[in-house]
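Supplementary notes for students who missed Thursday's class. We covered one full example, reproduced here. Read the sequence, then the structure, then the short commentary at the end.
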Amino acid sequence: MPAQRAATTLAKAASAPALPRYAQIANELIEQIVRGKYPIGSLLPREIELSEHYRVSRHTMREALRRLTDTGMVSRRRRAGTEVISASPPAPYRQPVNSIDDLLQYGEGTNVRVLGRERVKCDAELAGFLGCAVGDEWLRVETTRQQDGDSPPICLTSNYLSLELPGIERLVRRLTGPISAMLEREYGLRIATIEQSMQAVQLRKPEARVLQVKAGTAGLRAVRRYFDASSRLLEVSDALHAGERFTYVTRLQRST
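Structure (token representation):
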């Protein structure tokens, strides 16, 4: 699978710092609530008790509880404690797609992080995937996408970009948002067609580490091919999503 071929890039990403300690604690408390350790209507241990249990400062524990409160799963009241009011985890990222414009706007409200970039010469497998000749060169850009700076990545993506686009390597170095938006903005072109395919996968250890889930977790692989008005292939993206963290929504209507 081309998205899993960039072992070197993934290894570098796997060595990146983990979530902040307060976020780790908040996620653990969410799991405990979902599993029923703290049922609806019960109180979590006091802040000082949780601080001692997790061996963190009161400040760190307070931030973890604030993050937990933001999910809507608990309610904090002074002198009353932290009460569990919902056993449902936070809603996953939802991607509503009803048109090409919706798909191109996907990610406008998220943060893109470039993990690595390199020119790749296509072997038979990659050439078949990209629909080009063996030996052709493309620019591969590995990225993650997050809702905010502290949240786990929504997806890990291998983006393949045509080197026929002048200056594409320079532009990628400044990338902060969706690649498709950058292509339209910088080259004055219009993406006219997007081919999309999806399949269920099990996340292997390298990509699971980057997505901050366990190896073997169910995932969604989404492959998209972006063409301009002359049917020239500009970009192929091969994205892996943690299934528990991503919902794909499509609204279909019959023509009258």
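Commentary. The longest strand covers residues 191-202. The two ends are 41 Å apart (CA to CA). If anything here is unclear, bring it to office hours.
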